[in-house]
Amino acid sequence: MSAHAALCQLGGTARWSQPAVVTVRAGRGWCGPRVICEYGDMADVVVRRVDFGYFVRPAQETGTGHPRVEPCLGYVVDHPRGMLLFDTGMGSHPEVDAHYRPHRAGLREALAVAGAQTSDLSIAGNCHLHFDHCGGNPLLPPAARPATRSPNSSRAPASNQ
């Protein structure tokens, strides 16, 4: 489920770029530095950044010839109809860990710093299924887990005739 679809289930839409905390009040307007929120008849909504750590992108992947440290961020959207988590942090696999040298904050710990816990979550979504966006999915309560599908799932099922 996309972040847009998940937020629409909660009653609104929003666009933002990495704010630490944003409070959206009913109406329409500019909500803060680098943050544009669009919404309908919504009560107060709070968006909090969740810091899951960082990883080091190897030089051969950056195009600059130098390694680059990249943050791993998620967002909690606290809405009167429920709490949305967008992205769940880094997974772990020995080969991936050796390649990207991640420094992780676990899902529960990162949510606690942001003032939330997994039991607060109504729904979650991932922007895509790379290791740095969906690693915490298995730790989510079943009702909050994102619906995921394979790239071929849009095809009609084969007939068993």
Give the tags.
disordered C terminus, 5 helices, about 160 residues, alpha+beta, six-stranded mixed β-sheet, about 30% strand, Metallo-beta-lactamase, Chain A, disordered N terminus
Q: Summary?
A:
With 161 residues, the protein is α+β, with helices and mostly antiparallel strands.
Topology (elements, then pairings):
Elements: H1 3-10, E1 15-16, E2 21-24, E3 29-32, E4 35-37, E5 45-57, H2 59-62, E6 68-79, E7 82-86, H3 94-100, E8 103-104, H4 107-113, E9 121-125, H5 131-134
Parallel strand pairs: 7-9
Antiparallel strand pairs: 1-4, 2-5, 3-4, 5-6, 5-8, 6-7
What would you say the CATH architecture is? 4-Layer Sandwich
Mean of pLDDT: 77
CATH class group = Alpha Beta
Helix content: 10-25%
Number of helices: 5
Give the CATH superfamily: Ribonuclease Z/Hydroxyacylglutathione hydrolase-like
Radius of gyration: 17 Å
SSE sequence, one letter per element: HEEEEEHEEHEHEH
Remind me, CATH topology?
Answer: Metallo-beta-lactamase, Chain A
Weakly predicted, low-confidence segments: 1-41, 155-161
The major beta sheet can be summarized as: 6 strands, mixed
